[in-house]
UniProtKB/TrEMBL annotation:
Name the record gives this protein: MarR family winged helix-turn-helix transcriptional regulator
PANTHER family for the chain: MARR-FAMILY TRANSCRIPTIONAL REGULATOR, TRANSCRIPTIONAL REGULATOR, MARR FAMILY
Keyword Transcription: yes
Lineage of the species this protein comes from: Bacteria, Bacillati, Actinomycetota, Actinomycetes, Pseudonocardiales
SUPFAM superfamilies referenced in this protein's UniProt entry, alphabetically: Winged helix' DNA-binding domain
UniProt superkingdom: Bacteria
Length: 152
């Protein structure tokens, strides 16, 4: 039963609406959690800049232009977010060792430490929730989220 023709139209519509409803709840909760985590990193950090900080933490020292390319966000958005993270002393610009004319953006020591603390707490919370789930359900959920993210 892979094809949409294998499912009655009403059943498929009902399943799609249930998924849409659950995704809406998940997105709302994710926003709320992101705001809370951002405030734990720095009281003046907003959710969008928190997302940028996470991204920078994952990719390491990088040119701002590469962040634009990787995220698909507008150059001015990236510039504003990086400038804000610099103001909060969570990131810094350093000389590119391969090109003295270029600058790289990287987390400061303080930014790295604060982000690691919040990530560890977030990971522990997720593990506590998922400890109640069988491994095969975690794997299936992860695979399906990956498929949805790829299709989006």
């Amino acid at each position: 039963m892979n094809s949409t023709q294998d499912q009655p139209a009403g059943e498929r519509e009902s399943a799609t609406r249930a998924l849409e409803r659950e995704l809406s709840v998940l997105i709302g909760r994710a926003r709320s959690i992101s705001l809370s985590l951002a405030a734990r990193v720095h009281p003046e950090l907003d959710a969008a800049c928190y997302a940028m900080l996470l991204h920078l933490g994952d990719i390491g020292p990088v040119r701002a232009a590469d962040v634009v390319e990787r995220t698909g966000l507008d150059k001015s958005t990236i510039s504003r977010q990086i400038a804000r993270l610099e103001e909060l002393e969570l990131v810094e610009r350093v000389a590119d060792p391969h090109d003295g004319r270029a600058r790289l953006v990287q987390l400061t020591d303080g930014g790295t430490e604060r982000l690691a603390t919040v990530r560890n707490d977030r990971r522990a919370r997720l593990h506590a929730i998922l400890d109640r789930w069988p491994t095969d359900e975690i794997t299936t959920f992860s695979d399906l989220l990956g498929k949805l993210n790829q299709d989006l």
